[in-house]
Design a protein that fits this description.
The chain has 179 residues and is α+β, with helices and mostly antiparallel strands. It has a single domain, classed as Aminopeptidase. 27% of the residues lie in helices and 35% in strands. The chain contains five helices and eight strands, in the order ββαααβββαβαββ. Strands 1-2-3-4-5-6-8-7 form an eight-stranded mixed sheet, with helices on both faces. The longest helix has 15 residues. It is globular and about 40 Å long. The relative contact order is 0.15.
């Protein structure tokens, strides 16, 4: 599914390319209310929609998606991805989620974001990586900033979720590995 099948290793976690066998975990994680509530897209996730995502987005290279695994147990605990990869302007949107609730608020989001930014800049040769965070997701906002993203703006009433308008922070990082 990916050009580069490398494992990206961190201190507590490693990232590996997503496979079709991850479908059940992805669907289970994304349908948990505490995960879904942090996404702008909040529709139910199905096996069919995920397989279509893999076939049309990941296989085409428009998306690079990794599975987050604990090093100690090898347990898959979430996912991180670059979507809407734009090779004309060398940019993409970044996102992640921790699907296993016992792994949240342990600094894993910071570690994943740090690893993914470096991967995006050095392997994918992106120049700019953006992220969008709902304004009430303070933990993700702080984690992304700590990992090197900069808050570029706040879009007031940017999305309507369950009939309520929500603000969205726009974050970005520029490739500092380039010469």
């Amino acid at each position: 599914m990916m050009e580069n099948n490398q494992i990206i290793e961190g201190d507590k976690i490693y990232l590996r390319p997503i496979t079709m066998s991850d479908t059940e975990d992805i669907v289970r994680w994304r349908n948990q209310e505490d995960v879904r509530s942090r996404f702008i897209y909040q529709e139910d996730f199905t096996r069919e929609s995920h397989i279509q995502w893999l076939e049309t987005k990941v296989n085409s290279g428009e998306v690079v998606q990794m599975i987050i695994c604990e090093k100690e147990s090898n347990r898959a605990i979430g996912s991180a991805y670059f979507r809407d990869i734009d090779r004309v302007h060398n940019k993409a949107e970044y996102g992640l989620f921790i699907g296993e609730s016992d792994c949240r608020i342990k600094g894993i989001g910071y570690e994943v974001t740090s690893l993914m930014l470096k991967y995006g800049f050095t392997v994918l040769k992106l120049h700019r990586i953006i992220g969008r965070v709902l304004s009430d997701n303070v933990i993700s906002l702080k984690s992304a900033i700590k990992a090197g993203m900069v808050q570029e703006g706040l879009f007031v009433d940017d999305v309507c979720i369950h009939g309520c308008y929500k603000d969205v922070y726009m974050l970005a990082a520029i490739n500092h590995y380039e010469e």
